[in-house]
User: Which sequence fits this backbone?
């Protein structure tokens, strides 16, 4: 950690009260962040509040805001989820209100949330979240709210930081799944398709595919050529490999095709099962002499106890964010750059999504290992 910018500037007025929330979907390591933030901030003399279920705790009446103390965060380090709860349906700038009659309308309740923060005498709002939550944080910053960000997503697609916590645990789960699929694929001479998360970026698919020894890895960054995959499977059969393992990221699509399950809000649960894994199976059907099975790993990747790496990264982010609040350095997001935890302007976190670079070392390694990426 670069400790230079953690030193207290005694000339500055100390922040008294901060409010933290965990927005968007959960990621393993959120509780490590909360624990580290609360412990460090309270030791520095700050008062910490938490909003339940992301912004929902601030939007709803009565509000759901709780004091967070050392006692509140005791024993939570190995736990998945978030002790505060998460919500990806509580955007104050586009909040869906339901009437008693069941009708819905989208309203902007951001002024109400700002007024609530003032009423609670919150000096700094700390948002832990992905691109959606960071965008909300950015919009509040533009309205004059002091905001500190902590990047979070298993997808690792935030440009602000080299890595997000949650990725490592998700990759470990996906790697375990590939290992398990290998033995049953081999026993039945099957082609196994494993669909993993990663709506816009293929980090989970690529890393787990390399770690698990997949034969084909398909990521959103490369629109795959189905002929290349057919060729790969046939080439494997011809050289005595009776089975093949394909890992596909949920945002992957065929050349000239569309992504099959990216529908706003997943209007039907069925769309989870009609995802890119099934789309790929349909394209392969009849073209190869193997049974095909599809496994959708889904939310197993987001659940469970965080890995040591995610606990450590979450703890480092939490500590650093507490010091940013203590020094009243708002408008910043904590980030991992190389080996160091630094802070970067909030705008950086929302500027671009961090996709897998096709000219990067990881893709080069994948090609060198003979793993088919479906490149047309
Ligand atoms: O953004 C993280 C992510 O894991 C995406 O890869 C996936 O599309 C999404 O969450 C699913 O979230 P939910 O089912 O909670 O809406």
Assistant:
């Amino acid at each position: 950690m670069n400790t230079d910018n953690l030193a207290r500037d005694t000339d500055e007025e100390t922040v008294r009260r901060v409010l933290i929330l965990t927005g968007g979907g959960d990621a393993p390591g959120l509780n490590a962040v909360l624990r580290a933030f609360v412990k460090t901030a309270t030791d520095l003399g700050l008062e910490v509040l938490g909003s339940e279920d992301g912004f929902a705790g601030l939007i709803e009446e009565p509000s759901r805001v709780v004091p967070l103390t050392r006692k509140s965060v005791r024993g939570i380090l190995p736990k998945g989820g978030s002790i505060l709860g998460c919500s990806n349906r509580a955007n104050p700038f586009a909040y869906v209100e339901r009437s008693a009659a069941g009708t819905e309308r989208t309203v902007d309740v951001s002024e109400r949330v700002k007024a609530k923060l003032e009423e609670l005498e919150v000096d700094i709002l700390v948002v832990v979240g992905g691109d959606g939550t960071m965008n909300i944080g950015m919009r509040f910053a533009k309205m004059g709210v002091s905001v500190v960000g902590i990047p979070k997503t298993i997808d690792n697609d935030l440009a602000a930081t080299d890595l997000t916590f949650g990725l490592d645990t998700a990759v470990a789960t996906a790697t375990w799944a590939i290992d398990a699929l290998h033995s049953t694929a081999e026993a039945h001479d099957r082609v196994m398709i494993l669909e993993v998360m990663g709506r816009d970026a293929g980090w989970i698919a690529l890393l787990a595919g390399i770690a698990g020894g997949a034969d084909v890895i398909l990521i959103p960054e490369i629109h795959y050529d189905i002929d290349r995959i057919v060729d790969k499977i046939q080439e494997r059969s011809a050289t005595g490999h009776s089975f093949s393992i394909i890992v596909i990221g949920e945002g992957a699509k065929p050349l000239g095709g569309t992504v099959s399950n990216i529908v706003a809000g997943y209007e039907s649960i069925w769309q989870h099962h009609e995802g890119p894994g099934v789309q790929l199976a349909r394209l392969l059907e009849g073209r190869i002499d193997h049974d095909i099975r599809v496994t959708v790993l889904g939310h197993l990747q987001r659940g469970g106890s965080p890995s040591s790496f995610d606990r450590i990264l979450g703890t480092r982010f939490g500590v650093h964010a507490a010091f940013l609040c203590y020094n009243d350095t708002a408008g910043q997001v904590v980030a991992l750059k190389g080996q160091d935890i630094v802070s970067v302007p909030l705008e950086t976190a929302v500027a671009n999504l961090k996709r897998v670079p096709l000219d990067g070392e990881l893709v080069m390694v994948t090609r060198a290992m003979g793993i088919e990426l479906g490149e047309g």
